[in-house]
Design brief:
Blueprint lengths: L2 H13 L3 H8 L13 E6 L19 H13 L5 E4 L1 H9 L7 E5 L21 H6 L4 E8 L6 H17 L3 E11 L7 E3 L3 H12 L8 E5 L5 H5 L6 E4 L7 H12 L4 E6 L1 H4 L6 H10 L2
Parallel strand pairs: 1-2, 1-9, 2-3, 3-4, 4-5, 5-7, 7-8, 8-9
Antiparallel strand pairs: 5-6
Amino acid sequence: MREEQLRELIATRVHRPGAIAEAATNRVRASSLLGEHGRLMMIAADHPARGALRAGERPLAMADRADLLERLVLALSRPGVNGVLGTPDVLEDLLLLGALDGKVVVGSMNRGGLAGTVFEMDDRFTGYDAAAIAAARFEGGKMLTRIDPDDPTTVATLESCGHAVSDLAAHGLMAMVEPFISHREGGPGGRVRNELTAEAMIRAQTVAAGLGRTSAHTWLKVPIVEEMERAMAATTLPAVILGGEVGQDQDATFASWAKALALPTVQGLVIGRSLLYPPGDDVAAAVDAAVGLL
Protein backbone atom coordinates (compact mmCIF):
# COMPACT_ATOMS: atom_id res chain seq x y z
CA MET A 1 0.00 0.00 0.00
CA ARG A 2 1.33 3.42 -0.94
CA GLU A 3 1.95 5.79 1.96
CA GLU A 4 -0.48 8.35 0.57
CA GLN A 5 -3.24 5.72 0.43
CA LEU A 6 -2.66 4.84 4.06
CA ARG A 7 -2.66 8.51 5.10
CA GLU A 8 -5.88 9.11 3.18
CA LEU A 9 -7.51 6.07 4.78
CA ILE A 10 -6.60 7.27 8.27
CA ALA A 11 -7.68 10.84 7.49
CA THR A 12 -11.07 9.59 6.31
CA ARG A 13 -11.56 7.64 9.53
CA VAL A 14 -10.64 10.73 11.57
CA HIS A 15 -12.57 13.41 9.70
CA ARG A 16 -15.31 11.57 7.75
CA PRO A 17 -16.37 8.41 9.56
CA GLY A 18 -19.69 8.59 7.74
CA ALA A 19 -17.82 7.79 4.54
CA ILE A 20 -17.85 4.12 5.58
CA ALA A 21 -21.65 3.91 5.47
CA GLU A 22 -21.62 5.86 2.20
CA ALA A 23 -19.16 3.40 0.68
CA ALA A 24 -21.31 0.47 1.80
CA THR A 25 -24.41 2.06 0.25
CA ASN A 26 -22.63 2.77 -3.03
CA ARG A 27 -20.87 -0.60 -3.31
CA VAL A 28 -21.74 -2.60 -6.40
CA ARG A 29 -23.03 -5.90 -5.04
CA ALA A 30 -22.25 -9.32 -6.46
CA SER A 31 -25.01 -10.70 -8.65
CA SER A 32 -24.52 -14.21 -7.23
CA LEU A 33 -22.74 -16.05 -4.43
CA LEU A 34 -20.90 -17.96 -7.15
CA GLY A 35 -18.31 -16.60 -9.54
CA GLU A 36 -18.01 -17.16 -13.27
CA HIS A 37 -16.37 -20.51 -12.51
CA GLY A 38 -19.53 -21.61 -10.68
CA ARG A 39 -17.85 -21.69 -7.27
CA LEU A 40 -17.37 -19.39 -4.28
CA MET A 41 -13.72 -18.30 -3.97
CA MET A 42 -13.21 -16.16 -0.88
CA ILE A 43 -10.25 -14.65 0.96
CA ALA A 44 -10.53 -14.83 4.77
CA ALA A 45 -9.14 -12.07 7.00
CA ASP A 46 -10.90 -12.28 10.36
CA HIS A 47 -7.99 -13.76 12.32
CA PRO A 48 -6.55 -10.58 13.92
CA ALA A 49 -9.77 -9.83 15.85
CA ARG A 50 -9.20 -13.03 17.83
CA GLY A 51 -5.58 -12.07 18.55
CA ALA A 52 -4.44 -14.77 16.10
CA LEU A 53 -1.68 -12.95 14.21
CA ARG A 54 0.59 -15.87 13.31
CA ALA A 55 1.03 -17.13 9.76
CA GLY A 56 3.40 -20.05 9.38
CA GLU A 57 6.68 -19.27 11.11
CA ARG A 58 5.90 -15.54 11.38
CA PRO A 59 4.31 -14.94 14.82
CA LEU A 60 3.17 -11.38 14.03
CA ALA A 61 2.61 -11.67 10.28
CA MET A 62 -0.85 -10.11 10.42
CA ALA A 63 0.13 -7.33 12.85
CA ASP A 64 1.05 -4.84 10.10
CA ARG A 65 -2.35 -3.58 8.92
CA ALA A 66 -1.05 -1.73 5.85
CA ASP A 67 0.77 -4.88 4.72
CA LEU A 68 -2.32 -7.01 5.35
CA LEU A 69 -4.51 -4.62 3.37
CA GLU A 70 -2.03 -4.60 0.49
CA ARG A 71 -2.11 -8.40 0.38
CA LEU A 72 -5.91 -8.42 0.56
CA VAL A 73 -6.37 -5.89 -2.21
CA LEU A 74 -3.96 -7.84 -4.40
CA ALA A 75 -5.71 -11.16 -3.69
CA LEU A 76 -9.16 -9.65 -4.36
CA SER A 77 -7.95 -8.23 -7.66
CA ARG A 78 -6.97 -11.62 -9.07
CA PRO A 79 -9.32 -13.19 -11.65
CA GLY A 80 -11.71 -15.71 -10.16
CA VAL A 81 -11.67 -14.35 -6.59
CA ASN A 82 -15.24 -13.32 -5.89
CA GLY A 83 -15.46 -12.81 -2.15
CA VAL A 84 -13.95 -11.81 1.19
CA LEU A 85 -14.60 -12.67 4.83
CA GLY A 86 -13.63 -10.22 7.57
CA THR A 87 -14.39 -8.25 10.71
CA PRO A 88 -15.82 -4.71 10.60
CA ASP A 89 -12.45 -2.95 10.83
CA VAL A 90 -10.94 -4.90 7.92
CA LEU A 91 -14.01 -4.80 5.68
CA GLU A 92 -14.47 -1.09 6.27
CA ASP A 93 -10.87 -0.40 5.28
CA LEU A 94 -11.49 -2.39 2.10
CA LEU A 95 -14.72 -0.47 1.48
CA LEU A 96 -12.85 2.83 1.73
CA LEU A 97 -10.18 1.49 -0.63
CA GLY A 98 -12.87 0.57 -3.17
CA ALA A 99 -11.85 -3.11 -3.17
CA LEU A 100 -15.27 -4.70 -2.55
CA ASP A 101 -17.22 -3.83 -5.69
CA GLY A 102 -18.74 -6.94 -7.22
CA LYS A 103 -17.53 -9.16 -4.37
CA VAL A 104 -19.44 -11.45 -2.03
CA VAL A 105 -18.84 -9.93 1.42
CA VAL A 106 -19.33 -12.00 4.59
CA GLY A 107 -19.00 -10.41 8.03
CA SER A 108 -17.39 -12.31 10.91
CA MET A 109 -19.72 -12.37 13.92
CA ASN A 110 -18.31 -14.10 17.01
CA ARG A 111 -14.72 -13.12 17.83
CA GLY A 112 -14.96 -13.16 21.63
CA GLY A 113 -13.12 -16.45 22.14
CA LEU A 114 -9.66 -14.91 21.96
CA ALA A 115 -6.82 -17.25 21.03
CA GLY A 116 -4.76 -18.52 23.94
CA THR A 117 -7.09 -17.32 26.71
CA VAL A 118 -8.85 -19.24 29.48
CA PHE A 119 -12.17 -18.05 27.99
CA GLU A 120 -11.37 -19.09 24.42
CA MET A 121 -14.26 -21.55 24.23
CA ASP A 122 -16.73 -18.91 25.43
CA ASP A 123 -16.97 -17.60 21.88
CA ARG A 124 -19.30 -14.65 22.26
CA PHE A 125 -20.66 -12.50 19.45
CA THR A 126 -18.55 -9.35 19.58
CA GLY A 127 -18.48 -8.43 15.87
CA TYR A 128 -21.27 -8.15 13.32
CA ASP A 129 -24.87 -9.07 14.00
CA ALA A 130 -27.43 -9.89 11.33
CA ALA A 131 -28.98 -6.42 11.36
CA ALA A 132 -25.61 -4.72 10.79
CA ILE A 133 -24.73 -7.13 7.97
CA ALA A 134 -28.06 -6.42 6.28
CA ALA A 135 -27.64 -2.66 6.77
CA ALA A 136 -24.19 -2.80 5.17
CA ARG A 137 -25.69 -4.68 2.19
CA PHE A 138 -23.31 -7.59 2.70
CA GLU A 139 -24.15 -11.12 1.60
CA GLY A 140 -23.84 -13.07 4.83
CA GLY A 141 -22.35 -13.68 8.25
CA LYS A 142 -19.88 -16.25 9.50
CA MET A 143 -19.69 -17.84 12.93
CA LEU A 144 -17.11 -20.14 14.50
CA THR A 145 -18.86 -23.00 16.34
CA ARG A 146 -16.46 -24.98 18.51
CA ILE A 147 -17.98 -27.83 20.50
CA ASP A 148 -15.97 -28.91 23.55
CA PRO A 149 -17.65 -31.85 25.32
CA ASP A 150 -15.85 -30.90 28.56
CA ASP A 151 -16.62 -27.15 28.55
CA PRO A 152 -20.08 -25.99 29.69
CA THR A 153 -19.72 -22.67 27.82
CA THR A 154 -20.19 -24.60 24.57
CA VAL A 155 -23.96 -24.62 25.01
CA ALA A 156 -24.05 -20.80 25.17
CA THR A 157 -22.08 -20.61 21.91
CA LEU A 158 -24.46 -23.08 20.27
CA GLU A 159 -27.48 -21.06 21.42
CA SER A 160 -25.97 -17.80 20.13
CA CYS A 161 -25.10 -19.40 16.78
CA GLY A 162 -28.64 -20.74 16.49
CA HIS A 163 -30.06 -17.26 16.98
CA ALA A 164 -27.59 -15.82 14.43
CA VAL A 165 -28.55 -18.43 11.81
CA SER A 166 -32.23 -17.58 12.31
CA ASP A 167 -31.63 -13.82 12.19
CA LEU A 168 -29.55 -14.02 9.01
CA ALA A 169 -32.14 -16.25 7.36
CA ALA A 170 -34.87 -13.73 8.22
CA HIS A 171 -32.91 -11.21 6.12
CA GLY A 172 -32.38 -13.76 3.33
CA LEU A 173 -28.62 -13.80 4.03
CA MET A 174 -26.10 -16.63 4.09
CA ALA A 175 -25.14 -18.07 7.48
CA MET A 176 -21.64 -19.54 7.16
CA VAL A 177 -21.13 -21.89 10.11
CA GLU A 178 -17.62 -23.18 10.88
CA PRO A 179 -18.03 -26.21 13.20
CA PHE A 180 -15.35 -28.17 15.08
CA ILE A 181 -15.14 -30.67 17.89
CA SER A 182 -12.51 -29.05 20.10
CA HIS A 183 -10.58 -30.00 23.25
CA ARG A 184 -8.14 -28.38 25.64
CA GLU A 185 -4.84 -30.22 25.82
CA GLY A 186 -4.11 -31.31 29.38
CA GLY A 187 -7.42 -30.08 30.76
CA PRO A 188 -8.56 -26.58 31.83
CA GLY A 189 -6.18 -23.83 30.77
CA GLY A 190 -4.52 -25.98 28.11
CA ARG A 191 -4.21 -25.05 24.45
CA VAL A 192 -7.37 -25.51 22.37
CA ARG A 193 -7.02 -28.11 19.63
CA ASN A 194 -9.59 -28.91 16.95
CA GLU A 195 -10.15 -32.63 16.34
CA LEU A 196 -9.49 -33.12 12.62
CA THR A 197 -10.90 -36.60 12.04
CA ALA A 198 -13.79 -37.76 9.87
CA GLU A 199 -15.74 -38.86 12.94
CA ALA A 200 -15.33 -35.48 14.64
CA MET A 201 -16.29 -33.56 11.50
CA ILE A 202 -19.37 -35.74 10.98
CA ARG A 203 -20.55 -34.96 14.49
CA ALA A 204 -19.72 -31.26 14.25
CA GLN A 205 -21.44 -30.85 10.88
CA THR A 206 -24.62 -32.60 11.95
CA VAL A 207 -24.89 -30.35 15.00
CA ALA A 208 -24.18 -27.19 12.95
CA ALA A 209 -26.70 -28.12 10.25
CA GLY A 210 -29.48 -28.23 12.84
CA LEU A 211 -28.90 -24.75 14.28
CA GLY A 212 -31.58 -22.09 13.87
CA ARG A 213 -35.19 -22.04 12.71
CA THR A 214 -34.24 -22.95 9.13
CA SER A 215 -31.22 -24.26 7.28
CA ALA A 216 -32.31 -22.71 3.96
CA HIS A 217 -29.47 -20.18 3.97
CA THR A 218 -26.88 -22.16 5.94
CA TRP A 219 -23.48 -23.04 4.46
CA LEU A 220 -20.75 -24.96 6.27
CA LYS A 221 -17.08 -23.93 6.40
CA VAL A 222 -15.02 -27.07 6.98
CA PRO A 223 -11.39 -28.20 7.18
CA ILE A 224 -9.68 -30.95 5.23
CA VAL A 225 -9.66 -34.27 7.11
CA GLU A 226 -8.78 -37.85 6.26
CA GLU A 227 -11.69 -39.69 4.60
CA MET A 228 -13.14 -36.40 3.40
CA GLU A 229 -15.75 -38.17 1.27
CA ARG A 230 -17.15 -39.98 4.32
CA ALA A 231 -17.14 -36.77 6.38
CA MET A 232 -18.98 -34.75 3.74
CA ALA A 233 -21.62 -37.45 3.31
CA ALA A 234 -23.06 -36.33 6.66
CA THR A 235 -24.92 -33.33 5.20
CA THR A 236 -26.63 -31.97 2.12
CA LEU A 237 -25.78 -28.36 3.03
CA PRO A 238 -23.39 -26.53 0.70
CA ALA A 239 -19.87 -26.34 2.09
CA VAL A 240 -16.66 -24.42 1.50
CA ILE A 241 -13.16 -25.58 2.40
CA LEU A 242 -11.10 -23.52 4.84
CA GLY A 243 -7.34 -23.16 4.52
CA GLY A 244 -6.12 -23.44 8.11
CA GLU A 245 -2.48 -23.02 9.06
CA VAL A 246 0.18 -22.12 6.51
CA GLY A 247 1.90 -25.32 5.37
CA GLN A 248 5.31 -25.60 3.74
CA ASP A 249 4.16 -28.24 1.26
CA GLN A 250 1.86 -26.08 -0.83
CA ASP A 251 1.50 -28.69 -3.58
CA ALA A 252 0.13 -31.19 -1.08
CA THR A 253 -2.26 -28.57 0.29
CA PHE A 254 -3.57 -27.73 -3.16
CA ALA A 255 -3.96 -31.42 -3.98
CA SER A 256 -6.13 -31.92 -0.88
CA TRP A 257 -8.30 -28.93 -1.83
CA ALA A 258 -8.71 -30.23 -5.39
CA LYS A 259 -9.80 -33.64 -4.12
CA ALA A 260 -12.37 -32.06 -1.78
CA LEU A 261 -13.73 -29.83 -4.55
CA ALA A 262 -14.76 -32.96 -6.47
CA LEU A 263 -17.34 -33.79 -3.77
CA PRO A 264 -20.93 -32.75 -4.56
CA THR A 265 -21.57 -30.57 -1.49
CA VAL A 266 -18.28 -28.66 -1.72
CA GLN A 267 -18.94 -25.37 -3.49
CA GLY A 268 -15.67 -23.49 -3.12
CA LEU A 269 -12.78 -22.28 -0.99
CA VAL A 270 -12.48 -19.75 1.85
CA ILE A 271 -8.74 -19.37 2.37
CA GLY A 272 -6.86 -16.86 4.48
CA ARG A 273 -3.28 -17.15 5.66
CA SER A 274 -2.35 -19.92 3.23
CA LEU A 275 -2.87 -17.51 0.32
CA LEU A 276 -2.11 -14.18 2.00
CA TYR A 277 1.21 -15.39 3.48
CA PRO A 278 2.22 -18.34 1.28
CA PRO A 279 5.65 -20.00 1.20
CA GLY A 280 7.77 -17.76 -1.00
CA ASP A 281 5.43 -14.82 -0.27
CA ASP A 282 4.07 -14.64 -3.84
CA VAL A 283 0.43 -13.82 -3.07
CA ALA A 284 -0.69 -13.47 -6.69
CA ALA A 285 0.80 -16.83 -7.72
CA ALA A 286 -0.72 -18.62 -4.72
CA VAL A 287 -4.17 -17.13 -5.32
CA ASP A 288 -4.05 -17.92 -9.05
CA ALA A 289 -3.09 -21.52 -8.31
CA ALA A 290 -6.02 -21.87 -5.89
CA VAL A 291 -8.43 -20.36 -8.42
CA GLY A 292 -7.10 -22.84 -10.98
CA LEU A 293 -8.41 -25.68 -8.83
CA LEU A 294 -11.96 -24.48 -9.45
